[in-house]
Prior knowledge:
The protein has helices at residues 3-13, 19-70, 76-79; strands at residues 112-115, 122-127, 162-166. It is mainly alpha-helical.
Amino acid sequence: MSYYKQLKTKLKQTKGFTLIELLVVIAIIGILSSVVLASLNGARESARDSRRQTDLNQVRTSLALFRDQCGEFPSESEAAVSGSLGSANSCGTTLSDHMSQVPTDPSTGDYVYASNNQNDGYCLAASLEGDSVPDDSASSSDGACSNIDTSTAPPADNGGATYFLTN
């Protein structure tokens, strides 16, 4: 038998994957990738919620330093937690003296700050994506938190909880 005929016979005997087998493998890979992506979204939400909590605790520390220096917390116009660092108050300091940059929410960009009328109390608020409220969260009726209109800010239309911090 010639070499050419042997090669031709060998090629005929070699089998490849059928179309059905290939489609089944592609379907399994697709299902596995969708499960992995779904679990990653939950981890991303948790990470953003954790960042929100850390950001508000950082602002809380800066507000405590501000109070130590000035004897009172900044008014809402002096603090402006949604991006600017406010203007100098009667003691000649700003919140930017205690923070280089006001943190912003990873999704909406804004956190909410409210102070009471005497500037001896405040409330910080952020909308969480998860529905579990952290242990250190205050209630919307605590102190200056009652000044925050939770229907407008922070936006809680994502079905998550609202996280409140007070002094």
